[in-house]
Sequence to fold (303 residues):
Amino acid sequence: MSVPRKLLPSIASLRALEALDRLGSASAAAAELSLTQGAVSRQLQALEAQLGLELVQRDQKRLLLTPEAQDYAAEIRQALNQIAQSTLRLQTGPLAGTLNLAILPAFGMRWLMPRLPEFSRLHPDVTINMSTRLEPFNFSLEQFDAAIHYGNAEWPGTRALLLKHEQLLPVCAPDLLAGRSLAGPEEILKLPLLHIQTRTSAWADWFAQKGITAEAEQAGTIYDQFATITQAALHGLGVALMPDYLVEQDLATGRLIALDTRPAESNGAYYLVWPERKDADPSLVKFRNWLADKAQPEDPLPR
Fold:
């Protein structure tokens, strides 16, 4: 990648700008950077000269960033943090294998976590760092080696391993029915429906699979995670369309009841996804090969 020199200021001048923005004074920035106030001022002057812009307002010996410089500093802060994280990964990589993995909160906790002790026993040399992400992202902008996500395998520039198809059940608290029984799944339309934010068409697709005519958009409250929609269902706020593996314990204990006991397969599935450039990464290869043995649609959740 060829970038003009004027667009790549020195790390030292960018650190001075970021520190002044975050700490609010040249003296505090100088103390954090182990420099004198004069050195901080010179770094900022050099940055202004290189960019050809005024970044600092000098008022009675105080240094204040212009509004434009404050916005610039906020973006630079993210870049500096990414450089620091990448450097740390590079330094620790030769000592131990690491895998930076993005996971979905519910699937990660209920499906992946119970299986991970086995991977740790088989591969103690690999450390898995996990962060939650709800939506697909750009691997070139986020420093993940792989991600576990729901949907399809059409993620540009990546490869994928199918982990599990998803079976859905409509569930609610027993009190919501007040002792009534439903004559058929079409009567669910008469009850308050709970929606998950990442799957806005889930109810419409489910009704279509059951041969029930329903509006494309159903009224009801929206939740951003399965953990919160589960609690809403448990407290009688409505009917939730849930993956069976997430509600099996609540169904077994009677805290929730299934309004249709025939699971319906959703349009998406759970995949391990990784960028093509990471295909031969040793830690990812070990994790991927291990997961391949677990990737069975009917594989029961460990008890």
